């Protein structure tokens, strides 16, 4: 049991990587105020947790039932992430918002950022979902192990939430220029992650 818990915790922490995700969160929410960032963080981790929970409960069966392979899931997630990365690098979101500068960001906009790309595919992407499916399979139906797995998933998501709240302080220190530079740098990193998702999916298809 102890080996299972330590293995599951290490796996989920490495995949979630709260510190790195906080930097991505900073770039994705550079145009939001403090309250809106907190709302995005809360909604994002909540959505991601329930996705991971569902993945652990029956993700493999659902994908099989729908005729969707893990390879296809990885490729789709990579392409969606690439779209978000392009917006960050070329500041397309900023260009669209120039005409709306005098308006507050709508509630729907905040919800959209929380769902995509924060919850999907960053927090609950192909890697995290695959990990949950595999870890749930290793539990072999053991209720204690499955309960521990879901508890660990909640713990990791909470760690991401705390990291996101701390990212807001980083934004204040960086200033406008710093946020612009980091947003573009992180956009490039996001693009690389997206391409890696696609490569992993293609490898699975060819395996």
Short description:
With 207 residues, the chain is mostly helical.
Describe the structure.
There is one protein chain. With 207 residues, the chain is mainly alpha-helical. The chain is globular, with a radius of gyration of 18 Å. The model is unreliable at 96-105 (pLDDT under 50). The longest helix has 64 residues, at 143-206. It is built from 8 helices and no strands. It has one domain (2-206).
How many domains make up the coordinates?
1
Structural class: mainly alpha
Q: Which blocks of ≥5 consecutive residues have pLDDT under 50? A: 96-105
How large is the radius of gyration?
18 Å
Residues in helix, % = over 70%
Reading the helices and strands in chain order gives HHHHHHHH
What is the total tally of β strands? 0
Question: Which of globular, elongated, flat, extended, rod-shaped describes the shape?
Answer: globular
Largest sheet: none
Question: What keyword list fits this structure?
Answer:
207 residues, mainly alpha
Write the topology of this structure:
Layout: H1 2-16, H2 18-28, H3 34-66, H4 70-90, H5 92-97, H6 107-123, H7 126-138, H8 143-206
Helix pairs in contact: 1-7, 1-8, 2-8, 3-6, 3-7, 3-8, 4-6, 4-8, 7-8
